[in-house]
Amino acid sequence: MGADTIPALTRDDGASMSDTPLTDARNPADVVTGTVQQVLEMAETWTRWDGQPRPVDDRVYTPHKAIRRVTDHLIDHLAEIEARIAGVPTVPDHWHASAITTPADLTPFTPEDLDEARSRLTRFAQIFEVRLRRLSDAELDQRQADAWSIRQIAFHLEESLYYAKAIGSLS
Fold first, then answer.
1. By Cβ atoms counted within 10 A, which residue in 26, 35, 66, 137 is the most buried?
2. Which residues are CB-contacts of 7 (< 8 A; sequence separation ≥ 6)?
3. What is the pLDDT of residues 68-108, one digit of tens each?
4. pLDDT per residue as tens digits for the range 27-71
5. What's the chain look like in SS3?
6. Could you read off the pLDDT of 13-22 as tens digits, one per residue?
7. What CA–CA distance (Å, rounded) separates 54 from 75?
8. Which residues of 35-73 are buried (b: 16+ CB within 10 A; e: fewer)?
9. Which residues contact 54 (CB under 8 A, 6 or more apart)?
């Protein structure tokens, strides 16, 4: 398993994007499921959000926006992994990423929103868990042209914590 180094891990919207994600001895499935677990642990406190967007770097974040970005990131890379395994070209994404804040992002984060986020993200985590655990090390580490390996993609998904940490745990 390769342990590539990068200068810094940042967000997935192009700002200071790392060239190659750092990997380590953790199982890629554990990295993705652990990331989702950490996001949901922070999200459990977001029903206390005061309604004020949190400025971070050159963007603003809200609980809904953080959940949207984590979910979009998982969808994007799951599609990439599945297309690669199927041997078909990936469909380019057209996310506006965190460059936009939608009216829905500004609404209160209710207990029902938390339930929806928990259901959605735990199902995504399960899909990644099932998919990644079925791949051999050779399949996880195979690179195609300049694309990241599936292992690198899984470790890159850990960068989604950026969005949740923009809100943090609210007491």
1. 66
2. 18
3. 999 999 999 999 999 999 999 988 888 788 889 999 999 99
4. 999 999 999 999 999 999 999 999 999 999 999 999 999 999 999
5. CCCCCCCCCCCCCCCCCCCCCCCCCCCHHHHHHHHHHHHHHHHCCHHHCCCCCEEECCEEECHHHHHHHHHHHHHHHHHHHHHHHHCCCCCCCCCCHHHCCCHHHHCCCCHHHHHHHHHHHHHHHHHHHHHHHCCCHHHHHCCCCCCCCHHHHHHHHHHHHHHHHHHCCCC
6. 443 445 789 9
7. 24
8. bbeebbebbebbeebeeebbebeebbbbbbbbbbbbbbb
9. 60, 61, 62, 166, 167, 168
Q: Copy the structure tokens of residue 151.
A: 């292992």
Tokens for 116, please give them. 């929806």
Tokens linked to 47:
């029903």
